Amino acid sequence: PEDADLYALQMQEGDLVVLGTDGVFDNLYMQEVCELAGHATSPFEAKLLGAGQPTDPAKVAAAIAKAAFRRSMDREARTPFGDHARQAGLYHTGGKMDDITCVCAWLVLEE
C-alpha cells in the first residue's frame, strides 16, 4: 500500500478506468493503451447510439495485457522502461519481463 499511487480524477459516465501493474506500463506507452481502449464501446455509448452491446471491459483488459506481454518478449522493442533507463544512464534494450495484470471497468450511473 505504501508504494501505491493515489489519484483524484474528474470522470463522467462512459469513461473507462484502466488499472495495470508496472508490467503493463513499463512495456506500453500511454498512447498505446489509450489506442487499444479507444476501440471499445461503453455502455453509455451503446445506449445513446443504439449500438447493441457495450464492449466487455474484461476483453479490453485482456487485449492490453496481451499487448504488454508481447512487447515484454520483444528483445528489440522500444519501451517506456527502456526510455527511463537510458535517461538514468543505464543500458536496456527490448521489453521488460515482469508481472502483467490489467483490470478495466466502465463508469456507469445507476438508474
TrEMBL record:
GO terms assigned for molecular function: metal ion binding; protein serine/threonine phosphatase activity
Cofactor: Mn(2+); Mg(2+)
Enzyme Commission (EC) number: 3.1.3.16
InterPro entries attached to this UniProt entry: PPM-type-like_dom_sf, PPTC7
Catalytic activity entry: O-phospho-L-seryl-[protein] + H2O = L-seryl-[protein] + phosphate; O-phospho-L-threonyl-[protein] + H2O = L-threonyl-[protein] + phosphate
Keywords: Hydrolase, Magnesium, Manganese, Metal-binding, Protein phosphatase
Superkingdom as given in the UniProt entry: Eukaryota
Family: Belongs to the PP2C family.
PANTHER family: PROTEIN PHOSPHATASE 2C (PTHR12320), PROTEIN PHOSPHATASE PTC7 HOMOLOG (PTHR12320:SF1)
Protein name per Swiss-Prot or TrEMBL: Protein phosphatase
